[in-house]
Each structure stands twice: as structure tokens, then as C-alpha cells.
Here is the input.
Amino acid sequence: MLYCRNYMNDCLRTDVFIRYPPETIACSCIYLSARQLDVPLPNKPPWYALLNTNEDELQQIAITILALYTRNKRTYEELDKIVEKCKVQVQEAKLKAKGIPADATSAAATPTNFSPNSSRPGRFVLLHQVL
Here is the structure.
């Protein structure tokens, strides 16, 4: 049962939930688990026929799931570089949407005449005026 659940969780990393009905995906997870544990499944009639699926769909889903385990894993450094690049692109897009050129980001990030208290008086000033 644990293997089925693990395969089902791994399906979430693929597009099989968009392409196949849940019953077919569940059958494929059972199929993979039975193969891993060397548990025979009934062939006459085919056990998956009870849920209106066929062997081709089971195998396609199984191949998709098993392909996850053969992918090359990226290092954290590679992923950090990709994330930083995406952050820069998002920041540039935001500035472009505001009409600010991308090379003016350092000037826009540190305004010279900005003061958080210049726009409104603080609570102390308002409280003093009331008393």
C-alpha cells in the first residue's frame, strides 16, 4: 500500500492527472507496486477492466512515473542561479510596467528626499495636539 501511495504522490509531479481519469492512474500505481513487490495480478479477466481502463494506458502512465526517477537532478547552485535570474526578470518587468527604465533601478531603489514621516505626522504629535 505504501508503494501505491508513493507512486500516486509522484504522479503529482507530472501531467497524468490532466490526461487520464483518476481510476486509471490508481490502477497504474497498483500495477507498478505489484511489479515491484512481485505480486501476481489476475489476468483472466484482466483486473484493470473492472475500472474501465486498458493495459496501454496503464503502461503509458507507468512510463511517465518511472521517467521521473531517471531525470538528472540539478545542484542547488544551479537552481539558485535560475531563481535569481527569474527575480531580476520579474523586477525589470515591474519597472517597465511602471515606465521606469531598467538602468535606473539603483536610483529608484534609493530616493534622496524620501522620509517616512514627511507625509503625515506621527502618533506622538497627534496625541500632543489632543492634550
